[in-house]
Write a structure and sequence with these properties.
Blueprint lengths: L5 E5 L4 H10 L4 E6 L11 E4 L5 H15 L2 E2 L1 E4 L12 H21 L1 E2 L2 E6 L23 H16 L5 E6 L1 E3 L6 H12 L17 E3 L3
Parallel strand pairs: 1-2, 1-5, 2-3, 4-6, 5-7, 7-8, 9-10
Length: 217
């Protein structure tokens, strides 16, 4: 560890989590938790498998991490959540995104001093704007479909129950890289490449745009 400050990343084996670990590892010691461990890790970080829907498993895992790395976390970056493109309600939004986050927060309070808790929310929580009007941190939000609704529900819960842990809601745009990894962007590239009629107009309401962010940024 070389006495580096410790950062806990949930969802550390995923697309964003693994990239974030690579970016932060030169300056911090990364402890990652996820439903599965990566097959190979060149960073020398520590990985723990956890079932975020099980409070008992969460408590056992975080107690082990606290015992090994100490009770101070300079940051917790929480990326684990449920997502589906079909837009339908699903009990996993509640079990994973809401109850899982609540269990994580309550367990962190018992075992750690946390200097910062970053919750990965979504740009999709914002109310659509008129053309030319930029979305900012103070723009109004709007309940729409299951995924952004689950993020707003967690944001509200964190505001009520964070206690002494400082909370940051990071409302992320659609993240892509050189091989895409962003489904809506990939579908539009496919339409253009194959010459679909729907490749000409924007795939959706032409009055609205879609925020995108490259993984490196």
């Amino acid at each position: 560890m070389e006495n580096k400050p410790v950062i806990l990343i949930t969802g550390s084996s995923g697309f964003i989590g693994s990239a974030l670990a690579r970016r932060l590892s030169p300056h911090y010691y990364i402890v990652g938790i996820d439903s599965t461990k990566p097959d190979y890790d060149p960073l020398g970080m520590s990985h723990y498998e956890v079932d975020i829907t099980s409070s008992e498993n969460m408590e056992k895992t975080l107690a082990e991490i606290s015992g090994k790395f100490g009770p101070r976390l300079i940051s917790v970056i929480h990326l684990i959540a449920y997502y589906s493109f079909d837009g339908a309600e699903d009990e996993r939004y509640d079990a994973i995104t809401y109850e899982g986050t609540k269990s994580l927060l309550e367990t962190l309070k018992r075992f750690f001093t946390v200097e910062q808790f970053i919750f990965s929310s979504s740009m999709l929580v914002y109310k659509p704007t008129v053309p030319g009007e930029k979305i900012t941190e103070t723009s109004p939000v709007q309940k729409s479909w299951a995924y952004p609704n689950s993020k707003l529900k967690v944001e509200d819960m964190l505001q009520r129950e964070h206690g002494d842990i400082p909370i940051l809601n990071l409302r992320i745009a659609g993240v892509y890289d050189e091989t895409c990894h962003q489904p809506t962007l990939a579908h539009q590239i496919l339409r253009i490449h194959e010459g679909w009629v729907t490749s000409v107009p924007f795939p959706g309401d032409a009055d609205h745009g879609q925020a995108m962010l490259h993984l490196d940024d």
